[in-house]
Prior knowledge:
Largest sheet: none
Radius of gyration: 21 Å
Number of helices: 2
Helix content: 55-70%
Number of strands: 0
Order of helices and strands: HH
Structural class: mainly alpha
Amino acid sequence: MLDHQTVELTLIEVANQQGLTLDGKDLLDIRTRVAATLAAKERHRQRMKAPAYQWKKPDPHR
C-alpha cells in the first residue's frame, strides 16, 4: 500500500507540472484528503478481512 508522503508528493508534483501554484490551503487540503482516503481504505480492508458475524441467541434469564 502506498504511504501518505508518496501520494502527497505525487499530487503536488502533478499540480506543478500542470502549471498550478499551490498555497498553504491547497497543501492542507491535499494532506487531509489523502489521509482520509487512506484511512477509509484501511477501514474497508479490515471490514472485508473480518470473519463473518454470527448472531447467537442469548441465554435465557432465570
